[in-house]
Amino acid sequence: MAQDPMQHTGRETTQDVVVELQDAILTITLNRPAKKNALTDPMYGLLADAIERAESDPDVRVVLLRAEGDLFSAGNDIADFSRLAEQIAGHTAGGGAGQSADQAATGTVAAEPGGPASAITGQMNVWRFLHALAACTTPVVAAVQGKAVGVGTTMLLHADYVVLAEGAQLITPFVDLALVPEAASTLLLTQRIGHVRAFAMFALAEPLAAEDAVATGLANRVVPAESLLDTARQVAGELAAKPAGSLTATKHLMRNAEALAPVIDREIAVFTERLAGPEAREAFAAFAERRSPDFSPFS
Hints:
Elements: E1 11-13, E2 17-22, E3 25-30, H1 41-56, E4 62-67, H2 78-93, H3 101-106, H4 118-121, H5 125-135, E5 140-144, E6 147-149, H6 151-154, E7 161-165, E8 169-171, H7 185-193, H8 195-203, E9 208-209, H9 210-215, E10 221-223, H10 228-240, H11 244-254, H12 257-275, H13 278-289
Parallel strand pairs: 3-4, 4-5, 5-7, 6-8, 7-10
Antiparallel strand pairs: 1-2, 2-3, 8-9
Main location: other
Keywords: Isomerase, Peroxisome
Subcellular location: Peroxisome
């Protein structure tokens, strides 16, 4: 049996994700700066492993989420999206169980959980990561520089203390990719900043500047870029020194993880439907061809 890379303390790396436990702080680093820390399915798997470890390992008292390079994350790797869309479309074209004639003809899939594409999407590590993060009772500190795009922003809704570098931006261009938001962000972002601001971020991809993120309650503070990691580590250290039982119990009382899980599942179902549709295929093709997408043929 292969060794579990997360079963002991110390520094672990699989090139794109680095996990290190020191002084009761589990630091998780996105380490794909050459690709703007775009997240792939294997990276999501490692992130999920790390968060699950934080919940089960008594030596972990705080999680620190950070990234190498000039920006936090460009979001999901578009190439991964394209491959998954092709898999789902192929399943649909093959007449997946439960697929209607109209769905087979248009290349869409049933959106309900357990639908014809569920066997494919159920294997995606991103959903395991998002569920683990939403249910995590260990305090999570995030250090964010540059742009946090898509899931790079929505994962921050599950952090407990967010430090932004000067010039950081939060961007959620889901509609531009013909998709829908995830990570229970349709609920959480709306609760935090209100419907009209959340809608503008989702539908128009309006970026939220670091100072505005603090003003609207999405982040705690803005610091110079050179102070970002030290500040986040200081906060994590302060939290690690608190009584762990009281701290995790407080977080558990503040967050209703049981209520978030069905929201995430509903988003996953609609996300899957959109991912396999013609609008998303046009968005991904336009991205690959470095052109503007043309959604006019689709109703």
